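Methods — Computational structure assignment.
A single polypeptide chain was analysed. Its primary sequence is given first, followed by the predicted tertiary structure written as structure tokens.
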Amino acid sequence: MLRHEFRPGRLVAGTFFVLAGVTFAGDAGGLWDTPWFAMIPIVVVGLALAAMTALLAGGIRRRRRGTDGAGSASGGGGASGGAEGRGGATASGAWRGPTG
């Protein structure tokens, strides 16, 4: 069972930040020479791809949630009920307790 909702946009952003860190560490360690301005395109492209990924995933998530009907008992996990689409506790990421 998943403990949190999968966020692919954050995965993409984290991957590009790790790439920027590895690039910076390789330059600091003397393995290669990286100009100072090389970090800007890495970070900007990573953030742009992360935003597009998050928008796409959010659209897919909303479309799937809309086809479930009421959504109260059809979900396979702990996040159930109509509070998801109205900005309830599940949408904000708050812990809902053992009773759901």
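Note: Residues 55 and 61 are 10 Å apart (CA to CA).
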